């Protein structure tokens, strides 16, 4: 089920990438996966979001990613509640958006290999330039992007109560995997 935010984002993506022709140069991942892990001395925190939308204009090397923060699934409901209400404030900041460009494409095709992607991540009311290394794996039917990076909590104005500060990691480990198919 697509949410209105996803429909709006998709329309914006089409406008951003331009009108596509009969033979589309866009590839789309409708159910990308983003997970995060945070070590704490009390209990590790981890969650996964399997409802991440992404689209790539391959010849231009432009990439757009959007995810709803409430779509993260935790092992414990209380962790999910704290995550949404106290840390990422999902009611105020319902989504994360990344708009970027694949920097080292040598031609207008994606091949197997490692690429550098740079762009702007808009998360928790903060826009920040980031660079990611991604591994691209091609299959006959799809293109898979995967990688990992760290997110410093302080860079995105996520407030951690002083009492809990020693128990929560300063950097959150993020992993992602998107399987793209031709946009039809």
Number of strands: 9
Helix residue percentage:
10-25%
Report the average pLDDT across residues.
Answer: 85
Structural class by secondary-structure content: mainly beta
The helix-strand sequence is HEEEEHEEEEE
Broad shape = elongated
Largest sheet: 8 strands, antiparallel, barrel
Placed side by side, the strands forming the largest sheet appear as 1-2-3-5-6-7-8-9
Determine the number of helices (DSSP H or I, runs of at least 4 residues). Answer: 2
Share of residues in strands: over 45%
Give the CA-CA distance, first to last residue: 18 Å
Q: What integer value in Å does the Rg equal? A: 17 Å
Report the uncertain regions.
19-23
Describe the protein.
With 184 residues, the protein is mainly beta. It has two helices and nine strands. The protein has an eight-stranded antiparallel β-barrel with strand order 1-2-3-5-6-7-8-9. Strand 1 (26-38) and strand 2 (45-57) form a beta hairpin. It starts with a helix and ends with a strand. Residues 19-23 have low confidence and may be disordered.
Tag the structure with descriptive keywords.
184 residues; mainly beta; elongated; 2 helices; 8-stranded antiparallel beta barrel
């Amino acid at each position: 089920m697509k949410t209105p935010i996803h429909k709006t984002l998709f329309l914006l993506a089409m406008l951003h990438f331009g009108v596509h022709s009969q033979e589309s140069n866009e590839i789309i991942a409708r159910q990308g996966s983003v997970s995060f892990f945070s070590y704490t001395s009390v209990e590790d925190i981890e969650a996964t979001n399997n409802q991440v939308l992404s689209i790539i204009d391959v010849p231009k090397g432009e990439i757009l990613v959007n995810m709803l923060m409430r779509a993260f699934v935790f092992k414990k409901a209380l962790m999910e509640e704290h995550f949404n209400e106290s840390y990422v404030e999902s009611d105020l900041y319902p989504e994360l958006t990344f708009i970027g460009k694949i920097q080292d494409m040598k031609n207008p095709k994606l091949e197997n290999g490692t690429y550098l992607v740079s762009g702007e991540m808009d998360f928790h009311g903060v826009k920040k330039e980031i660079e990611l290394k991604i591994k691209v794996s091609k299959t006959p039917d799809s293109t898979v992007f995967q990688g990992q990076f760290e997110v410093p909590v302080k860079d995105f104005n996520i407030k951690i109560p002083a009492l809990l500060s020693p128990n929560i990691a300063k950097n959150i480990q993020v992993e992602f995997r998107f399987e793209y198919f031709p946009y039809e």
